[in-house]
Design goal:
heterodimer, A: about 90 residues, hypothetical protein PF0899 fold, three-stranded mixed β-sheet, 2 helices, 3 strands, globular, B: about 270 residues, alpha/beta, Rossmann fold, seven-stranded parallel β-sheet, about 20% strand
Amino acid sequence: MAMPRPEMMAVHELALTESVIEQIKERLGDAQVVRVRLAIGRLQAVLPDAVRFSFEVCTQGTSLDGATLEILETPGSELQIKEVEVK
Amino acid sequence: MCATCGCSGVGDPRSLEHDHDHEHHHDHEHPHDHDHPHDHAHHDHADHDHAPAAARTISFEQAILAKNNRLAAENRAWLAGRGATALNLMSSPGAGKTTLLERTIRDLGTKNVIAVIEGDQETRRDADRIRSAGARAVQVNTGTGCHLDAQMGSGALRELDPPSGSLLFIENVGNLVCPALFDLGEGARVVIASVTEGEDKPLKYPHMFRSARLVVLNKIDLLPHVAFDVDHFAAAAREVNPEVELLPLSATSGAGLDRWYRWLADRI
């Protein structure tokens, strides 16, 4: 299936994912990222699958391209970048 | 890769040209009884781990929305600095946000300076309606975006330049899901529902209703014609948000508007 262009997706998960990528690049520059771990609270209206999809699309051609995305689903309302692994 | 200095450890050509300035700790004695072929400092013996090419984990513990929240705090401070009150109005499409604002501007516009930020995916129609009603308005088109964020709010605020003491309405994109996540720097959130929607809407969209200070129930003039139980709706809203205030009104007939205006006056 062809991947839709990011601007075709009208979901807040896309904005959240862009914010994740921006913050990682701000802090780590062009270091190659191999793994990103997020915590997403179940009380937030955030779908992990939509975040995974957005991540795959938005990281293409960036220093996060190919990185594994781990999402911890937590009971509360947190939305956190927990840790990032670089090579 | 070395987690401290970024060199790739023993044998890495880069480690022979170390000119960076972090501390290399030598916690053991160097006998120096052998011939040193190279002239650099003895950094191979640093006490950090030189595992060749191993990935390193960096702890972030940073809010995903950190940037939005920082900008929202700036907006809030900017608004407080000029004594303007901002309300973030959210609803599903068609609940009557713009109609309620038009009516509010016509009724209060002579006493209060009212300004409006209009968020829609496309068109300037709502900003035109607001201007026709007599208030300043800035239209923000989000394209395919489903919500306003603090950065859009920041740009619109500066363009709108609300004077001291003004009442600023931010009409968010019609959507009961996404806008709930994004703080814009508002003083309070108002969710507008209408009697033509399901009375269980607060239970279906708890995030939105949980974040609201006030829930306006619009179009009550239509109650005789629809199967909508106001008490059931109120119970659903209080189930997700026990503190929430509820205000049934009709922006077209004017019923209940006096309470809405009193609520607004208390915020200014």
